[in-house]
Protein 1
Amino acid sequence: MDRILVLVRHGQSDWNLKNLFTGWRDPDLTPKGVEEARAAGKRLKALDLQFGIAFTSVLTRAQHTLKLILEEIGQPELPTVRDLALNERDYGDLSGLNKDDARAKWGEEQVHVWRRSYDIAPPGGESLKDTGARVWPYYLFNILPPVMRGEKVLVAAHGNSLRALIMALEGLTPEEILKQELDTGVPILYRLNADTTVAEKKVLKG
Ligand SMILES: O=C(O)[C@@H](CO)OP(=O)(O)O
């Protein structure tokens, strides 16, 4: 039996383009982001996967990406669950600020720690560890069961909520997850073993 899980970060958002901390704010995709999402759909279509269920966050950029992928693969009516457990890491007080302005104000090093450290949260926001504390149980109780039943599962979410998920899925250490960057609109296909560990990982880049 195939146990297939596909993770995809949303296409470029308006605030990715403007270089703003986004978190739980809700910008839509740019035209480039729309293209990235459609291209992701085309790459998945070429694999001829019939998905059984999709999961996404409550944020527009992830839902829009999912909608475009589902159109491309010819499954626009796929049952979809939306949950804020999959939302982007909450950037707290940094939300809406320009990333270069933040570096000028607080310094390169501090901003890097806020963006990529495992357990240091930006002021008023979540660390990756905090994000994992909501993503991991959601994965275990909601996403993993259909995968293990053989339904192919598609998850459209965000850079840091997916980094948290990947950390658990691949058993990465806090040091290893620091270096993991996810491209917008690039699906990652996992095939799982019967014991839920990863048998195979493919990054579906154009
Ligand atoms: O702004 C955000 O919410 C995220 C993702 O775009 O940014 P970062 O690259 O700092 O994790």
Note: The helical segments are 14-17, 31-47, 60-72, 99-106, 108-116, 128-149, 159-170, 174-178.
Protein 2
Amino acid sequence: MTDGQRSPTDGQIVVSGLTKQYKNVRAVNDLSFTVEPGRVTGFLGPNGAGKTTTLRMLLNLVTPTAGVATIGGRRYADLTDPLRHVGAVLEASSAHKGRTGINHLRVICAAAGLPKQRADEALALVGLTPAAKRKFKGYSLGMKQRLGIAAAMLGDPRVLILDEPANGLDPEGIRWMRGFLKGLAQQGRTVLVSSHLLSEMQLLADDVVIIAAGQLVRQGPVDQVIGSMAQGARVRVRTPQAEALTAALKAESATVDVDEQGTLLVGAVDAPTVGRVALAAGVELHELTTERPDLERVFLELTAGKADIR
Ligand SMILES: Nc1ncnc2c1ncn2[C@@H]1O[C@H](COP(=O)(O)OP(=O)(O)OP(=O)(O)O)[C@@H](O)[C@H]1O
């Protein structure tokens, strides 16, 4: 941070009653949520849920039909020096093909009135210094993503907004991105990142905002959102005597579902109880595992039936 005078709400994002009506589609519908500084917030939703439209409204790239979005209490359009407040990575970075990475950043610095040395600093920040003088057309997808982030960091912004930054990255790239974004949040910055990679989000995000069909479904710390699900842990059971075990478990008030592989998913009782019931019924077990709810399961339950066909 270059400025020690900032108040804690400087980096807060507030979305209030945001709505976007395209001709036939209500892409975003009366959406309200807040995003706090010092945390990574995952912005999740099925395809077509309205994530990109929301982020674009935040950045004044799309005009809302109703509602307002503010960053540190001000609309993006009202920020005097937006690049110093907000960095955004909306799609895999594009740059002039024949331009080197460093020159790409210097051009942005010049246009935004930022000191030239910020280009070198931002490139170093994302680990691209060794490729500074290589031409953009020779960059891998992962390098392009890093360059996009470097561009977003030029103004040393308090708030970072990224749309699907892990798209197309290899596992090493995803791991780097995770560490980088967590580091930014630890410095007190606000990091809002949309993604459909739920297992990655569980590792990355402190908070989540889940939307579906343009509306808020759930918001809160990841652990709380997972813990709020009515259905807690389940027990996965594989057995060649599924019918006999199902009957015995139901007699103990357990719930039993069967997945496509024929594995029993048992609720309302714990694994030792399932083992005891199986032993008493003379049922052979091939697997007995406690399965705790994860973000993916919670997401699928919360957004079931609210798919993108609108
Ligand atoms: N410019 C536009 N004109 C008309 N409809 C649009 C426009 N942009 C988005 N939409 C529609 O608005 C809805 C929300 O789209 P949006 O891209 O915001 O969703 P998303 O959550 O980002 O989806 P994805 O995960 O697939 O990128 C979709 O039904 C989409 O087809």
Note: Residues 234-291 form a domain with the Alpha-Beta Plaits fold (CATH 3.30.70.100).
